[in-house]
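Final report, Chapter 2: Outcomes

The project's central promise was a pipeline that accepts a single protein chain and returns its three-dimensional structure in a standardized token representation, suitable for archiving and comparison. That pipeline is now operational. To close this chapter, we reproduce one record exactly as it appears in the project archive, with the input sequence first and the structure output second.
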Amino acid sequence: MRSTKRTQIFVAAPKRISVPDPTEQKLYKARERGRKRLVELWKATGPVLEIREVCRLLGATQKTVREMVDRHQLLALAKGRNTVFPAFQFNNGTVLRGILEVLEALETNSGYVVLAFLLSRNPDFDNKNAVDLLQAGDVETVISEARGFLRHGT
């Protein structure tokens, strides 16, 4: 005859539910604001092109396009496993005049920081965004603003 033993496990319920400390609450709220802003930026970006389309548009190879991204001459964004290129940076088969200079002036490797600069309405631009001004030909104003964009307190 076989004996069977049963083991009972008792788990004590916590006496009180802990509330995250104020710092954790602030961090959570900040992350949520960041996520919402990212969604807004993606919506404002409008159409995006895949690398093959950019190659066709510019008459360049994928290697050349990747090198342009590495040299901060084109804005590329990660979208899942793919890299996409906001269409607003192109005009009549070329890179929009001023984009290269703005990317260089911003001195950041974050495509989303660049996107925020280019697409956010700015009181110094009469409540337009940088892309609006570049498309209108006001390149120097945008470059000047880009040079000071990430230099808070200097």
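Archive annotation: The chain has a mean pLDDT of 88.
This record, like all others produced under the grant, will remain available to the consortium after the project formally closes.
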